[in-house]
Design brief:
Jelly Rolls; mainly beta; 1 helix; 5-stranded antiparallel β-sheet; about 140 residues; single chain; about 45% strand; globular
Length: about 140
């Protein structure tokens, strides 16, 4: 994924390019809450060891904001605001995608060794998740 890409992202989504320092020892990317990440981070989780044919996400949130980064391998992320859908290939650990509330998010096509770290604005709350796509479409119809 290129930060200068002309891809039109769904409503409220944007690419985050973290500062990256590289030398002969390797590379280091870093991010700070409310500086590079546009919210205080209340939860961090990661997904890994996902078989290529499996999917993660496949839901939206009512109020939680998230930023997702590929920290190993690659995967595709589908973003959908109810009107516009975009597919991004995530393969650069210094580039993430901001996913606001009411954007459907689906991760798929994981390569061997792929891992995704997710930074969330809220602690886990089952009621914040929208798992039914038809309900999601109803909630986004007025936007």
């Amino acid at each position: 994924m290129s930060p200068n890409s002309s891809i039109s992202l769904p409503k409220g989504c944007f690419i985050i390019q973290l500062p990256n320092v590289s030398d002969k020892r390797g590379s280091l990317a870093f991010g700070e809450a409310e500086r590079h990440i546009p919210f205080p981070i209340r939860r961090v989780f990661w997904t890994y060891d996902i078989q290529a044919e499996n999917m993660r996400g496949d839901h939206a949130h009512r109020s939680c904001q998230m930023v997702l980064f590929p920290i190993g391998g690659s995967f595709d992320i589908e973003l959908d605001d109810g009107k516009r859908q975009t597919l991004l290939h995530m393969d650069d650990p210094s580039q993430g995608v901001f996913v606001p509330p009411l954007v459907w998010c689906r991760l798929r096509n994981f390569t061997k060794g792929a891992a995704c770290i997710s930074l969330a604005s809220e602690t886990y709350c089952a009621e914040d998740y929208i798992h039914d796509y038809k309900e999601f479409i109803k909630l986004t119809a007025d936007d």
